[in-house]
Amino acid sequence: MNKKYISVEEFESLPESEQIQTLNRMLEDIPPDDLKVLRDVLPEITRIQNLLNNA
């Protein structure tokens, strides 16, 4: 993917198929080891977000 950043607003305004394509292009640039770390830490991030939302 090119180095152009996309805002949340821009992303949400895209049709679903383009959102998926955009996410796929973003994931292609992430090294596999980093994706594994992200996968492993997501449950903890979700837990913390829930704690913050309930505070």
Structure summarized in a few sentences:
The protein is mainly alpha-helical and about 55 residues long.
**Count of strand segments:** 0
State which percent range the strand residues make up.
under 5%
The span between the termini is 38 Å
Helix-and-strand structural type: mainly alpha
Spans of at least 5 consecutive residues whose pLDDT stays below 50 are none
Largest sheet properties: none
Tally the helices: 3
Average pLDDT reading: 90
Shape: flat
How would you characterize this protein structure?
The protein is about 75% helix and about 0% strand. It has 3 helices and no strands. It has helices at about 10-15, 15-30, 30-55. The chain is flat, with a radius of gyration of 14 Å. The relative contact order is 0.09. The model has no long low-confidence stretch (mean pLDDT about 90).
